Amino acid sequence: xxTSSSTNQxxxxxxxxxxxxxxxxxxxxxxxxxSNEPDKRCADRVTMEKLNTKECxxxxxxxxxxxxxxxxxxxxGGSFDKSAVTRGGIGGSHTGSxxx
Length: 100
Description:
Layout: H1 3-32, E1 40-43, E2 63-71, E3 74-79, E4 85-86, E5 94-95
Antiparallel strand pairs: 1-2, 2-3, 4-5
């Protein structure tokens, strides 16, 4: 039996095991992220500035902003109305009117 041949077969088997494990991990992550809750972040209703979460607690100046995205420390593409935003799976949340 050729030693290099058996080494190559061994390497291929371990690579297959690693790829199979990655598939299971991906499936588990998708399953965990499939709740009906949209992403939320704290933001100022007037300036649309993303704020620290504690600003959305009682007495803070922020409100929860659902879905959308954050760029340059500003939120966009979502809504302050949770019921207007639905969970969109792996791609993220989408609003009913413009997508996300």
